[in-house]
C-alpha cells in the first residue's frame, strides 16, 4: 500500500475551512493535513491530506465519503489532485534544513547542530524519523516547557510518556531527573525510534519502552501507578481513554496533555474532571494547547 496525496485547490477562505474539516474527519488516523497558497496571485490555496497505506481509488472514496458535507454536491471537484507518493521518508524530507528549536533550557537539534548547545542548555538530539515529535511543533514545545516547570517544583517517582513518537519527551524527563521513564506508543516504529534516540542522547538505560495499543494493556498496571504522565496525542483518543488513563495513575498525580487545538480544551477538561482531575495550568503556543491536570489535594 502507498501514501496518497489528496490536494483540493480552492479560494483562500474555502481552502482553510476545508483543511479544518480534514483535520476533524481524519483526526483519529492522524493523517497529515496542510493548507498553503498555491498560485502566484494569492487567489488560490490548496487543502491537502496524506492518506497512508491506501491506493488512489480507495483514497478517493475515503476522501469523498468523509468530506462530502463540506463539498459542493458532496463530491470531490474535478480539479482534485490524487498522487501516489514515492517511498520516501517524508518526515525526514520535511525536516531537512530545519533549525534547532529552543524550549526553555532545552534545545532540540539534529546531529549537524550539536555545536549550538551550550553548557547551560539541555540538548535533545532528535534525527528525522518515521515518528512524530521534533520540538518544532507547538504541542511538543508546550510539553517541554511544562515539564521543566513541574520538575523544578517537585520530584516524581514513576513517569510515563504515552504516545512517545520520537521519544523527545521521555528523553527530556530522563535528562531532567536522571530517573527511569517509561515510553510507549501504538506504533512499533515509534517505539523503536524513541529507544534509539534515548541511546543517542545518553539516557538509554533510563528510558524503557514497549508497544501497546492503549493504556488498558496489562503492562501499565504492572509498572504503575504513575505520578507524572505526559501524552502528546490528539483530543479524540485522549477523551476515549480518559477512564483507562486515570486508572493507571496514582491517587495524587499530574497529567500533561497536548496535541490539542484551543477548541479541544473544554471536552478534555470535562472528560478528565470525571476522573477527579482539575486544571492546574494551560499553555497556548501557535494555536495549540497544553493542559496540566492534577488529581489529589496537593499542588504540583
UniProtKB/TrEMBL annotation:
The keyword Methyltransferase applies. The gene is prmA. S-adenosyl-L-methionine binds at residues 140, 163, 185, 232. Its EC number is 2.1.1.-. It comes from Pseudovibrio exalbescens. InterPro entries: Ribosomal_L11_MeTrfase_PrmA, Ribosomal_PrmA_MeTrfase, SAM-dependent_MTases_sf. This is Ribosomal protein L11 methyltransferase. GO terms for cellular component: cytoplasm; ribosome. Keywords: Cytoplasm, Methyltransferase, Ribonucleoprotein, Ribosomal protein, S-adenosyl-L-methionine, Transferase. One of its GO terms (biological process) is methylation. Its main location: cytoplasm. Methylates ribosomal protein L11. GO terms for molecular function: protein methyltransferase activity. The keyword NAD does not apply. It catalyses: L-lysyl-[protein] + 3 S-adenosyl-L-methionine = N(6),N(6),N(6)-trimethyl-L-lysyl-[protein] + 3 S-adenosyl-L-homocysteine + 3 H(+). It comes from the Bacteria.
